[in-house]
Specification:
Among the domains are: about 5-125, no CATH class; about 140-260, no CATH class; about 710-965, no CATH class. It is about 40% helix and about 10% strand. A hairpin with a 2-residue loop joins strand 9 and strand 10 (about 435-440). The protein has an eight-stranded mixed β-sheet with strand order 17-16-18-19-15-20-21-22, with helices on both faces. The protein has a six-stranded antiparallel β-sheet with strand order 11-12-10-9-14-13. It is an alpha+beta fold. It is flat and about 120 Å long. It has 31 helices and 27 strands.
Length: about 1000
């Protein structure tokens, strides 16, 4: 088998031969063809051509004549000369465009001929540098030192070393006043002692179905970095003779230069207004804590049409018990309300992290729903926080998080049933088909217990591995098993560090004790660890202490912020002392990974997360803190993002930089696979805390406040539309009915909706009666990826065909340029609900409630926009208000049966609203059913128990009403 150097030589020779052959072929076609024609005296009839050009009617007359065999050759020669001249023009355009580094202009009716000339010219001038290059690219698989000259390698050599890092030298722009290096064409000159080397850059060999977008997402961690890849590869000759042009088409086998992963937005030091033209600008959120302006970044990076300029503002999360007005709220650009181009949100995290945050927000909003006062709406995020939550929801893998939580609880329950000691888990890998547990290599070898099975060894620690196969049936069984669902989480210190080719890798911090994170992305990864510990379902018994992140607010209840490592060390020292006093000095404390004993209550573990912003004076305190944590058996773990000798005594070390995470387990430790890290915003902790603070506001907001004041959805508070008469009944019968008050249904359409996303498009349009731009509905339906204009057009066309033509002869979805709006013949059951609820007749209220078929918007593929735009919260609030209004009317007329029906209809839409449960309590009392009172209260407590403690969480009005109606003794608070 040829060696790599022989293969490189062979590839070079093949490339040279192809270039020479293409050049010879081009010259022969351009020069030899006219020479041969002149040699055979194949001269076209110039006189006839001049007459045809002077008078085109002569050409028609000549072509209509009958030609003899002697007159045919001149006609053929004319065609040959025209074809040659046409080809020569295409070659000239192609060569000129190549030398200028631009895409060639298309010649009318010349697409096949231009494709031929592009292939010939591209292969012929493959060795000629393009005008897009300021200097030749030189590749070297070894790092570049200051003052070192780089060797030249061909693109073929770069392809062979595509999996190895290399650096680019050429005329690279200076980093500016704060930059670290200034590069010349041939050498690297150090500009600062702290940064004397270039950042590493990689290559990538294009595979089938690759796009610049997918490569940027997979290799750089952000799909928005595709423009950086394009800029780095414009005009680079490829082995097939072609190159990347402005059309951004790439072909399998191309070797692309991958620039360094784009830095996330730097956090501003003080609250800064959002200024047009500044993509990294941010609005302060929550007590002066900055949050990256993700919307401005999307526009700045993805559009060549300028940057949106939202109004300068400062946002403060609304606090419980306080009504916030409209003043002071950020009016950041919303992708659902502006006319900006559609830029997909950047997914945050690697699935499990997003699942934890989204799960926390959903739980908090259920509490908001239960506590919402009459006539108000629940508080929702605005501005950049909307984009942050959208990104988290896009990337959240809630099923995988559920498998981690329930799978580990199942393991603990199974081992307790057979009275077998729990093995020490050092890591977990979550794949698409299984949950893989990595046991401590130093622990005893334990035979797996069903349903767990032994797995073959692989990259990572050399200990035994157990797997739990994932299946929908098993997951449903675990959900319904109370022994598993109510069991304490046995491994609460699991955190995600990244993913390999198989899945997400998690590490048990309780088995590590101390973890030092280095590299340029150290602080971001530390923030991800802190947020995951504060939101994951399996980490409920964790107290998180953060140092160096500033004031994180009150949104994350498990998190406590400390101003210094000395303060955190005092907390940890006290906890360790209390732990030893509790368990007794003679009896060793249990390991951090199994902190429960039969005779003692669960012991909350403590994880200290330090940022890279700690002071020099805290270095010694950090060393003492790491020593106190030890191997994790004291119930304390330390995660620190620090450089140099700081925290050098940590047991494990991690290097996180450029989207890559390398784990070092210390001397003699088993090697772990290299991981791909997520793209985390620079101020992630504060942003998530601000989201949670808004979701914790149970006081409610007025419908005239954000984001509800810009909602296009019809509500009873709005002015009555023209389709309602005095009695409240709809005046005109619509032709197509879109049902959203339950499983989404469309009745009356001309054809079935067979194309994907057409139903979702119709639902979105019917809830935005004023019309929406293509960018707006594309962002709602596909928030995670851009859609080509052709795809948007085909989706709209398919929806138009399915809806059909109205009785007036117009399409139900009229054609419009860049904007869609349904015709008046298409209405939703929500529109009819609003019309009926505006009436003063109780029968109309009952008719409105009868429209409810189940949970609204059930069945949508992408339902996030329903939550983030406030549509779902509005529907829930209005339905509950109407249900309570009708139920009060029924109770006043001594009709408890219809009152109960109204409350149950409202619970189908808003199952956590306690006002409906208070209606049911009163209904049972009016019906003379004391057992019904107890049953309703038991139903409410069962519903609330999954989120918080029942009697501490029930609304005071509900508890007071229950005590008034119940014949039982008063229930003590806290029981």
């Amino acid at each position: 088998m040829p060696t790599p150097s022989i293969r490189v030589g062979m590839a070079r020779r093949a490339s040279v031969l192809a270039a020479v052959a293409s050049a010879v072929g081009t010259v022969l076609l351009v020069i030899a063809v006219p020479v041969v024609l002149l040699a055979f005296r194949a001269v076209p009839p110039l006189g006839a051509i001049v007459r045809a050009l002077a008078h085109p009617s002569n050409l028609v007359h000549d072509l209509s004549q009958h030609y003899s065999s002697a007159q045919a050759p001149p006609f053929v020669w004319s065609v040959a000369w025209v074809v040659w001249l046409w080809f020569a023009v295409c070659v000239g355009i192609e060569v000129t465009s190549r030398l200028r580094g631009r895409s060639p202009r298309p010649v009318p009716a010349s697409k096949p001929l231009q494709a031929l000339t592009a292939w010939l010219v591209g292969a012929a001038i493959v060795m000629i540098p393009s005008a897009r290059h300021n200097a030749p690219f030189r590749f070297d698989p070894t790092p570049v030192r200051s003052g070192q000259t780089l060797d030249v390698l061909s693109p073929v050599t770069a392809r062979l070393s595509a999996t190895r890092p290399f650096v680019v030298t050429g005329s690279v722009p200076s980093a500016g006043p704060s930059g670290s290096a200034s590069l010349g064409p041939d050498r690297v000159h150090s500009a600062a002692p702290a940064a004397s080397a270039l950042p590493e850059v990689r290559t990538y060999v294009v595979e089938p179905r690759d796009t610049l977008w997918s490569i940027a997402e997979r290799e750089l961690g952000s799909p928005l970095a595709w423009r950086d890849i394009a800029r780095a590869n414009y005009g680079r000759p490829q082995a097939d003779g072609s190159e990347l042009t402005d059309d951004h088409w790439i072909h399998p086998g191309w070797v692309l230069v991958l620039p360094a992963a784009p830095d996330a937005l730097p956090p501003p030091k003080v609250p800064t207004p959002i200024v047009a033209g500044t993509p990294a600008s941010a609005a302060a959120l929550g007590g002066g804590q900055p949050v990256p302006n993700l919307v401005a970044r999307r526009v700045a990076e993805g559009s060549g049409r300028g940057v949106l300029a939202p109004e300068p503002a400062v946002v403060s999360p609304r606090t419980p018990g306080a009504r916030s007005g409209t003043a002071g709220r950020a009016r950041g650009p919303s992708p659902h309300r502006g006319g900006a181009s559609h830029f997909p949100v950047e997914p945050i995290g690697y699935g499990l992290l997003g699942a934890g945050v989204v799960g926390l927000l959903d739980r908090l909003r259920r509490v908001q729903q239960r506590m919402r006062p009459t006539g108000l709406r629940i508080a929702l995020p605005e501005g950049d926080l909307v984009e942050l939550e959208r990104g988290l929801r896009v990337s959240a893998d809630r099923e995988a998080a559920e498998w981690v939580d329930l799978g580990l609880r199942l393991l603990s329950v199974t081992l307790q049933r057979i009275q077998v000691a729990s093995p020490e888990i050092v890591g977990v890998r979550v794949t698409a088909g299984a949950l893989e547990l990595w046991l401590d290599p130093a622990g005893p070898v334990v035979t797996p217990v069903p349903p767990f099975e032994a797995a073959a060894p692989g990259p990572g620690p050399h200990g035994a591995r157990w797997i739990l196969t994932r299946s929908p049936q098993r997951l449903e069984s675990l959900r319904s098993d109370p022994d598993v669902a109510e069991h304490e989480a046995p491994t609460p210190c699991l955190v995600s560090l990244g993913r390999d080719r198989a899945g997400v890798i998690m590490v048990n911090l309780a088995r590590v004790g101390s973890l030092r994170i280095g590299g340029a992305d150290a602080d971001r990864l530390a923030q991800a660890v802190a947020v995951e510990l504060a939101t994951a379902a399996w980490a409920e018994q964790i107290d998180v202490v953060v140092v160096g992140f500033g004031d994180v607010g009150t949104g994350l209840e498990r998190v406590r912020a400390c101003a210094s490592v000395h303060e955190a060390r005092g907390i940890v020292t006290r906890r360790i002392w209390e732990r030893h006093a509790l368990f007794g000095s003679a009896d060793p404390a249990p390991r951090g990974g199994d902190p429960w004993r039969d005779e003692l209550e669960p012991w909350d573990l403590c994880v200290v997360v330090c940022s890279a912003n700690i002071t020099r004076e805290d270095g010694e305190a950090l060393t003492r803190l790491i020593e106190a944590a030890g191997d994790g058996s004291s119930g304390v773990a330390v995660v620190c993002a620090a450089w140099g000798s700081t925290a050098s005594t940590a047991r494990w070390r991690i290097h996180a930089e450029g989207g890559c995470v390398e784990i070092e387990t210390g001397p003699g430790g088993d090697p772990w696979p290299t991981l791909q890290s997520p793209r985390i915003p620079s101020d992630f902790v504060h942003a998530v805390s601000s989201l949670a603070a808004v979701a914790s506001n149970t006081a409610g907001v007025d419908p005239s406040e954000g984001p509800y004041e810009e909602l296009a959805l019809a509500t009873p508070e709005g002015s009555p539309d023209n389709g309602v008469e005095g009695g409240g009944a709809p005046r005109a019968v619509h032709e197509i009915d879109v049902g959203v008050l339950g499983t989404v249904e469309i009745h009356g359409a001309a054809r079935p909706f067979t194309r994907a996303w057409t139903v979702e498009l119709v639902v979105y349009l019917v809830l935005h009666p004023g019309g929406v731009s293509n960018d707006q509905w594309a962002t709602a339906l596909w928030p995670d990826r851009p859609m080509a204009p052709a795809s948007l057009h085909s989706t709209a066309s398919a929806a138009r065909r399915a809806l059909g033509v109205a009785a007036s002869g117009e399409d139900h979805l009229p054609r419009a340029r860049g904007r869609l709006c349904l015709g008046p013949g298409v209405r939703s059951d929500w529109d009819r609900f609003v019309d009926l609820s505006r009436s003063q007749e109780a029968d109309d209220w009952a008719a409105a409630l009868a429209l409810i078929r189940g949970r609204p918007f059930d069945g949508l593929r992408s339902p996030d926009w329903v939550v983030l735009e406030g549509v779902q919260a509005t529907v829930e609030a209005v339905v509950v208000d109407v249900a309570c209004r009708f139920a009060d009317h029924c109770l006043g007329s001594k009709d408890p049966r219809r009152a109960e029906w109204a409350a149950r209809q409202g619970l189908r839409v808003s199952p956590y609203d306690e006002r409906l449960f208070r209606v049911l309590l009163r209904t049972a009392e009016v019906a003379g059913n004391p057992a019904g009172v107890e049953a309703v209260m038991a139903e409410l407590l069962h519903l609330v128990a999954d989120d918080v403690e029942p009697y501490d969480a029930v609304h005071p009005e509900t508890l007071a009403l229950y005590r008034e109606l119940s014949r039982r003794a008063p229930v003590a608070k806290g029981r």
